[in-house]
Amino acid sequence: MTSGLWELVLKGVWTTLQLLVSSALLAAAVSFAVGMARTHRLWIVRFVAGVYTEVFRGTSALVMIFWVFFVLPIAFGWQLVPMWAGTLALGLTYGAYGSEIVRGALNAVDPAQREGGIALSFTPAQRMRLIVLPQAVPEMIPSFCNLLIELLKGTALVSVMGMGDLTFSANLVRLALQQSAEIYTYVLLIYFVIAFVLTRLMRGLEKRLKAGIGKDSGTERAARELKRAQTTGVGGGVA
């Protein structure tokens, strides 16, 4: 390819990364807000959060992009630029999936931990912030990593709006060169590299968070070996 076509592809990569970051931030905010609402003590809050989750989890992300970009201006007179339309559609859609991750992790925290907070006269907000979330967040990271990779692949859907992301730029290059195999092989490799980097970063974050609460992989493994040795009398000791 010529330098001009490579520049077009690189601009597409930059647009994809911008969309990924903005929609991931929105999805994370929605995930925690809705996921925590799903565990709220008031049934109306749980009901509203549940309706949102079911609606956005049960609709197509592609159709949601069409709806935000084409229907929203007609219905409400709000015309969003493609970047913000894609961010809104993807963030709300993947945030619904993320809310279930948050809800599951919060419910997985030992109830005795919450009871300890009650015994210490913590408010519900303090129990959530100081006791529950520090234990639940590290358990969310692997699932959030998978969701982030899915979101990365979902960014390709915005090409239907004519947005100059990686997929759209690659298609323009393909039309110019008439070399589908070469161009789309490059695109696959670029997506793979981005996904690989994201996976490494998320694993590093998971390890750091678990180490912060004494639950890094080495500590967990040592604890399991010690427990097995104490209960069965078999197994190596912990140095």
Structure description:
The protein is mainly alpha-helical and 239 residues long. The chain has a single domain (3-214), classed as MetI-like (MetI-like fold), CATH 1.10.3720. It contains nine helices and no strands. The chain has helices spanning 3-37, 43-57, 61-76, 82-108, 111-119, 124-154, 166-177, 180-212, 217-232. Helix 2 packs across helix 4, helix 4 (82-108) packs across helix 6 (124-154) and helix 7 (166-177) packs antiparallel against helix 8 (180-212). The N and C termini lie far apart (58 Å). Mean pLDDT is 85; it is low at 234-239. GO terms for molecular function: transmembrane transporter activity. It holds the Pfam family BPD_transp_1. It comes from Streptomyces misionensis. Belongs to the binding-protein-dependent transport system permease family. The chain crosses the membrane at residues 12-35, 47-70, 183-201.
Topology, please?
Blueprint: H1 3-37, H2 43-57, H3 61-76, H4 82-108, H5 111-119, H6 124-154, H7 166-177, H8 180-212, H9 217-232
Helix pairs in contact: 1-4, 1-7, 2-4, 3-4, 4-6, 5-6, 6-8, 7-8
Protein name: Ectoine/hydroxyectoine ABC transporter permease subunit EhuC
GO molecular function, one term: transmembrane transporter activity
Organism: Streptomyces misionensis
